[in-house]
Amino acid sequence: MTGNLKAVPYTVTVPAGDGYDFDHMETRWRLVDTATSDIVDDAQGYGYRTAAAAYRAHGYKTTTCRRGTRPSIIKRRAQAWWRTHGRLRAELEDMQLQALKQGMPDRAMREVCTRYMHDHVSPPHGLTVPDLLRYF
Length: 136
Prior knowledge:
Strand content: 15-25%
Helix content: 40-55%
Largest sheet: 3 strands, antiparallel
Shape: elongated
Number of helices: 5
Radius of gyration: 27 Å
Strand order of the largest sheet: 1-2-3
């Protein structure tokens, strides 16, 4: 999906509720991808009453506000994890010192540390190895 969304109107017939009512037409809105013309969201076939409601609902559905993903929380959890893994911290510091003595570039040194972490450590739930190395 490209992210180019457009609210497109269409008409639906609302059936009569009882014998005293009559059928009437309503304009409903659905979100369509402008590049592929695929329907992205149409409220499970029912449609939205306004274009603003269609955009708003799509925003609610695509926003990921998971608990514990703020940078300050990740930093605090990573630092707490490092406090309990002092031996690993010492090993990584030694690896980095040896890499600096050999003249290894920063990117290669980070790749070596990342590979070592992937091989020897399973990070806690919600943290990744790059998160741990960022707050090393």
